[in-house]
Design a protein that fits this description.
The chain is mainly alpha-helical. It is built from 14 helices and no strands. The protein has helices spanning 3-20, 26-35, 43-51, 59-66, 71-77, 81-84, 87-106, 113-127, 135-141, 149-174, 179-188, 204-216, 228-246, 254-273. The mean pLDDT is 95.
Length: 288
């Protein structure tokens, strides 16, 4: 891995937890409940929060954009989400949710000059991202920028997170991995246990069939672990993903990137140290 791609991956590892608080914070569930969403599980609010920038999109469009979820699962929550609250109402509530969650998690750092400095640097990167052909990145980038620095930081992290995610889907397509094959091959390299991916809604039979397809391509062994070829293919997917995510970061100098890492470090520690996020996750952070 080149130094540049290593830095790109480092920034992803720093930003993903800062974005993901929306899906786990108690404050977010409270805001979702106030809108009328069920909060006994996280999926009703997850699909609403993440899909709202697309407008009141149908299940097909959301399944295509999210990729790894079974269309059956997507169909359970979309378009029903928009009968609970409009996309505009969801967007307003998610900003309130992040505001409150960051206040709890970050404390005085919310108003610290270092957070404002980090937000300014991240905004430059996010605004440099080419979102053509990247539906979730484009939809988030089109939203108004928040005035408060901590909210601008979250917004920039979200644009860059979805920019990377959209590029990752292109890399999976280039590797000829369909949604369930993408998960099976990811589990095969030890990114997370297969049980962790059950949240994506694929049935046992679909998982087995995907594994059999990958086995025919010589990508997984009989025990479900990746072969040498399977590991190499996933490494290529990750390399392509990093390459596709690299361009926006070039607007920063090396010194600015180092400063941003320094600024984000304490915020990352606060979020990770809270125990709010699961240690084993479908993103493979910490494993790939």
């Amino acid at each position: 891995m080149s130094d540049e791609l290593g830095r790109v991956r480092q920034m992803w590892h720093l930003l993903e937890p800062l974005h993901a608080v929306l899906y786990y914070a108690p404050e977010a569930f409270e805001e979702a409940s106030a809108l009328g969403y069920a909060v006994d599980e996280r999926w009703p609010s997850y699909f609403a929060w993440r899909a709202a920038p697309l407008g009141e999109a149908g299940a097909g469009r959301v399944a295509e954009a999210f990729y790894s979820f079974s269309p059956v699962v997507v169909g359970e929550y979309v378009p029903a989400a928009w009968s609970v609250a409009s996309a505009d109402a969801v967007l307003a509530a998610r900003r309130r949710a992040v505001d409150r969650a960051y206040g709890t998690l970050l404390g005085e750092a919310v108003t610290a000059p270092e957070t404002a400095e980090a937000a300014t640097l991240l905004r430059r990167v996010a605004e440099a991202a080419d979102t053509a052909g990247r539906p979730l990145a484009a939809a988030n980038a089109a939203l108004p920028w928040p005035d408060a620095p901590h909210l601008a930081l979250w917004h920039a992290a979200t644009v860059l997170r979805e920019h990377r995610g959209d590029g990752h889907l292109a890399a999976l397509a280039a590797a000829e991995l369909d949604p369930v094959e993408a998960l099976v091959s990811f589990a095969a390299i030890g990114a997370a246990r297969p049980e962790v991916f059950a949240s994506r809604g694929w049935g046992d039979g679909e998982w087995v069939e995907a594994r059999e397809r990958l086995a025919k391509r010589g990508l997984v062994a009989d025990d479900g672990t990746a072969t040498e070829a399977g590991g190499a293919l996933r490494a290529e997917v990750e390399r392509r993903t990093d390459e596709a995510a690299a361009a926006p970061w070039r607007v920063l100098t090396d010194q600015e990137r180092e400063r941003l890492v320094e600024l984000l470090g304490p915020l990352w520690v606060a979020v990770i140290g809270s125990g709010l996020l699961p240690s084993e996750n479908t993103m493979g952070i910490g494993k790939v």
